[in-house]
From TrEMBL:
Pfam (any one): D-ser_dehydrat
Annotated ranges, domain D-serine dehydratase-like: 266-373
Family of the protein in this entry: Belongs to the DSD1 family.
Name this protein carries in UniProt: DSD1 family PLP-dependent enzyme
Keywords for the protein's UniProt record, in alphabetical order: Lyase
Provenance organism: Sphingosinicella rhizophila
Length: 389
């Protein structure tokens, strides 16, 4: 359960009593989103390693992880340190390692956390092997580029893959497996494309694991994952774990590519109307890019949601009402271009909820979640979140 943190909070606090802008988190939606993915992967016989980069909160992480000790994936060593301090013991740092960060990795491991890292070059492997010479073999997963999205070794580059594997294994570190992330899935359109990307991701990771094993190298872990491919995988043969993160909250980008529905989005920014310009058919709110982020992830999708979709306090979207522009602390709300809807009659002081384009980016602007058990219910908890690297 989420710990109920007082911070001058009563069980009858309405979200309308909160200082704005702030984050509101719908607990029932979070629990439903988590159960959905867990059920899908359970049916496929594969474990989930929740990626905690989105939530950056101990309380929310406890809802997502299968147990108090993990497993978990993170994107910063600050996240690894915070979750380790809370008792999480199985953590994957899923960003390519820099040699300068290895002392922090070793400190976490020496304190009892099984922290594994990823890399995709002989240079990195040699640095990790040298750091492991002191007696603690650092566990390594080799990153695979399954879709040309970002980092990693291409599956067809077997010579490079084997060279990196040997540099890890023979150098004294622990070669734990391979890892890939189908980031291009965020640009897929339609179920068939999402299913094909999930299979492409799986096949790339499994083939690279076979390459390592054929070379006499260990590869016990085959790790894949992104929120879209995790939901649309139909066969995970050869995979040992799936990673996903934004599925806990979902967002407008995920809704735009068909991974979730608008009503599944559990995270919103509460804002207040501070200005009205009927001559220009717009409203001014106290949530700018400092509260919403600059993310425009839906701009290239079929429906452009501006800087966020505007809803009433029950989370029901106003027809075609979006945040069309942002300044540092001001947001401009108006109707989507071409809409025949009418601007709602919201007075100065009225509250609205804004669904985010990208939950990770929007949440990172705030230091806590104001939790409601369901739409329209009082605030039941305040859960701190952290930032930094």
């Amino acid at each position: 359960m989420l710990d109920t943190l007082t911070r001058n909070l009563s069980q009858t606090t309405s979200i309308e009593d909160l200082e704005t802008p702030c984050l509101v988190l719908n607990r029932s939606k979070v629990e439903r989103n988590i159960a959905r993915l867990n059920g899908h992967l359970w049916a496929l016989g594969v474990a989930l390693r929740p990626h905690l980069k989105t939530c950056k909160s101990i309380e929310v992480a406890r809802l997502a992880m299968p147990g108090a000790y993990g497993p978990a994936a993170v994107s910063t060593l600050k996240e690894a340190e915070q979750f380790a301090a809370a008792g999480v013991r199985d953590i994957l740092y899923a960003v390519g390692i820099a040699p300068q960060k290895l002392p922090r990795v070793q400190a976490l491991r020496s304190a009892g956390t099984d922290l594994s890292i990823i890399l995709d070059s002989v240079e990195q492997a040699e640095a990790v092997a040298a750091a492991s010479a002191g007696g603690d073999p650092i566990p390594v997963l080799i990153e695979i580029d399954s879709d040309g999205h970002r980092a990693g070794i291409r599956p067809e580059d077997r010579e490079m893959l084997t060279a990196v594997g040997r540099a890890v294994h023979e150098g004294g570190a622990e070669l734990r497996g391979v890892l890939t992330h189908a980031g291009e899935s965020y640009h897929c359109k339609g179920i068939a494309a999402l299913e094909a990307m999930a299979e492409q991701e799986r096949a790339a990771a499994v083939s690279c694991a076979a390459t390592l094993r054929d070379a006499g190298l260990p590869c016990p872990v085959v790790s894949v994952g992104s929120t879209p491919t995790a939901h649309f995988a139909r066969d995970l043969t050869g995979v040992t774990e799936v990673r996903a993160g934004v599925y806990i909250f979902f967002d407008l980008v995920m809704a735009g590519i068909g991974v979730c529905k608008i009503e599944d989005i559990a995270l919103a920014v509460l804002a207040t109307v501070v200005g009205r310009r009927p001559d220009r058919n717009l409203l001014i709110i106290d949530a700018g890019w400092m509260a919403l982020s600059r993310d425009r992830g839906t701009a290239g999708q079929e429906v452009d949601q501006g800087y966020g979709l505007v809803c009433d306090l029950d989370g029901i979207p106003y027809p075609d009402l979006v945040v069309v522009d942002t300044n540092q602390e001001h947001g401009v709300v108006s109707l989507r271009a071409g809409s025949s809807a009418s601007l709602p009659d919201l007075p100065i002081g009225a509250h609205i909820l804004i669904l985010p384009n990208h939950a990770c980016a929007t949440a990172s602007q705030h230091d806590c979640y104001h939790v409601v058990d369901a739409a329209g219910t009082p605030v039941s908890a305040i859960c701190p979140r952290f930032g930094g690297w």
